[in-house]
């Protein structure tokens, strides 16, 4: 190989980061082993059905990472590095008003945004940006010291950023430059052994341990790396059996006998890692910090806006019923609520415009004189088209908040209602000089393209969705 294209750089970066994290956090290596075992088991049991939401090749290699940065300038640099890997900022998550614990960050996920690129390698990274301007967390004095501290550090060397820019401009790098780029990029996310100022770290930790992890150190690091698994309940049982303490629950939708939608995640608790700490008198002593953890996820079908509204309503219903029966497990309550309200088949999700599918002409359909209708639900009923689920490639704010907070070392301190600053996807786009993509629009575009092809093949002008008309 003399040249690495964008996707090859992405795949190689993901692989090397995984190797690095496995050496840093041995429990992660166990998690990857168990995930692969479970995936093998599911494949053996369910056959081709196991690959309905992604080939086993894709699922085995699939990871998401999480990193946290302190300033818009740092986020813009992260965007250049991931830009070189064909990953665009997608989705906006504001975790500052999250329950049960507010986290002083806003986030986006960098990921490939087209189906072919996702199929080549779906690596994504959840990136959080600290918001020191938010007075509910940081008073003016602390914010100023935080900004001074952050403005003095350099997370990414110039050479790395220059290589990233040329990789993005040219769609890849020659082997020599690629090797250097990958070495610097992976190195930038390794845990540093630079001493941590104990007093400063603890001052921030009193506000939020996420703030301390971001602004209390002079470097950044990968916070967790998450493999994808085909049966997350089985994985949870197997990890527990191996003596690894998992968080109490699986976040997101329940296990049930209908189609999997969106995202289910769980994690094991942050582990104490040796770090060097510097005291006020300048002495450096070995100590421990507890910030990095392991997470695993199972992915389901992406929901349309209508499907997402239904999901939100079901979550609220689960909260209501669960509040009324404290001893019941949330996932059990959720399973009941889903059985009551969630369509039980992919076909119903498609016909009700609740989830995203791409559509293909059913090549095995017998000719029976029935003309193709312009209505999608009729095309499904008459067997003209077959739906293929679109996988949810993004994150869930409530699960993210749950994952963050189940791994906090303390509850932190946040004042009531005053002093929040407004942040949204537009703010973030401007801050990094790149448009933050809207996930639903990406799924919608994929579906629309497939329906245009179906319409052309069936000689129809347009196909009607239950929610409206598509050209
Ligand atoms: C990010 C937490 C969110 C997920 O998968 O929802 C997350 C973090 O801990 O930095 O990774
Ligand atoms: Ni995660």
Short note summarizing the structure:
The chain has 471 residues and is an alpha+beta fold.
Report on the structure:
- With 471 residues, the chain is an alpha+beta fold.
- The chain is built from 18 helices and 16 strands.
- The strands form six sheets. A five-stranded mixed beta sheet has the order 3-4-5-2-8.
- Helix 7 packs across helix 8 and helix 9 packs across helix 10.
- The two termini are 43 Å apart.
- 45% of the residues are buried.
- The model has no long low-confidence stretch (mean pLDDT 93).
- Nickel (II) ion is lined by residues 64, 66, 126, 224, 226, 295, 403.
- Rg, please? 23 Å
Mean pLDDT reading: 93
The number of E-state strands comes to: 16
Q: Pairing-aware structural class of the strands and helices?
A: alpha+beta
Low-confidence stretches: none
The N- and C-terminal alpha carbons lie at a distance of 43 Å
- Sheet with the most strands, sense and barrel status: 5 strands, mixed
With strands numbered from the N-terminus, the spatial order across the biggest sheet is 3-4-5-2-8
Shape: globular
Could you say which small molecules are bound to this protein?
Answer: 2-oxoadipic acid, nickel (II) ion
The percentage helix is 40-55%
Given the structure, what is the number of helices?
18
Strand content: 15-25%
């Amino acid at each position: 190989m003399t040249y690495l294209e964008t996707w090859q750089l992405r795949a190689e970066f993901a692989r090397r980061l995984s190797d690095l994290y496995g050496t840093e956090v041995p429990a992660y290596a166990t998690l990857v082993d168990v995930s692969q075992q479970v995936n093998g088991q599911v494949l053996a049991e369910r056959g081709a059905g196991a690959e309905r939401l992604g080939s086993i090749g894709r699922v085995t290699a699939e990871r998401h990472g999480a990193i946290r940065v302190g300033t818009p300038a740092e986020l813009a640099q992260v965007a250049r590095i991931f830009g070189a890997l064909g990953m665009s900022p997608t989705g906006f998550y504001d975790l500052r008003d999250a329950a049960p614990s507010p986290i002083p960050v806003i986030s986006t996920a960098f990921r490939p945004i087209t189906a072919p690129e996702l199929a080549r390698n779906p690596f994504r990274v959840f990136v959080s940006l600290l918001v020191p301007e938010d007075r509910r967390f940081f008073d003016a004095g602390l914010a100023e010291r935080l900004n001074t501290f952050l403005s003095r550090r350099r997370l990414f060397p110039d050479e790395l950023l220059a290589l990233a820019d040329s990789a993005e401009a040219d769609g890849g790098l020659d082997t020599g430059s690629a090797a250097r780029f990958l070495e610097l990029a992976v190195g930038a996310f390794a845990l540093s052994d630079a001493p941590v100022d104990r007093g400063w770290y603890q001052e921030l930790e009193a506000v939020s341990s996420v703030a301390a992890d971001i602004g209390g150190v002079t470097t950044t690091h990968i916070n967790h790396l998450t493999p994808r698994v085909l049966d997350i309940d089985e994985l949870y049982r197997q990890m527990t059996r191996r003596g690894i303490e998992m968080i109490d629950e699986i976040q997101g939708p329940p296990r049930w006998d209908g189609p999997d939608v969106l995202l289910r995640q769980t994690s094991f608790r942050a582990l104490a890692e040796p770090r060097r700490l510097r005291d006020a008198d300048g002495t450096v002593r070995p100590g421990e910090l507890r910030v990095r953890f392991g997470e695993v996820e199972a992915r389901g079908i992406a929901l349309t806006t209508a499907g997402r509204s239904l999901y939100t309503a079901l979550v609220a219903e689960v909260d209501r019923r669960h509040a009324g029966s404290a001893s019941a497990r949330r996932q059990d309550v959720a399973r009941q609520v889903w059985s009551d309200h969630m369509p039980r088949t992919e076909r119903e999700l498609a016909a009700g415009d609740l989830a995203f599918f791409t559509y293909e002409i059913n090549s095995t359909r017998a000719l029976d004189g029935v003309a193709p209708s312009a209505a999608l639900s009729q095309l499904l009923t008459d067997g003209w088209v077959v739906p293929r689920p679109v996988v949810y490639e993004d994150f869930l704010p409530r699960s993210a908040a749950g994952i963050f907070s189940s791994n906090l070392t303390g509850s932190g301190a946040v004042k009531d209602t005053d002093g929040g600053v407004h942040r949204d996807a537009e703010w973030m786009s401007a801050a990094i000089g790149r448009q933050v993509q809207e996930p639903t629009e990406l799924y919608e575009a994929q579906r629309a393209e497939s329906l245009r092809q179906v319409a052309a093949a069936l000689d129809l002008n347009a196909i009607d969705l239950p929610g409206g008309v598509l050209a």
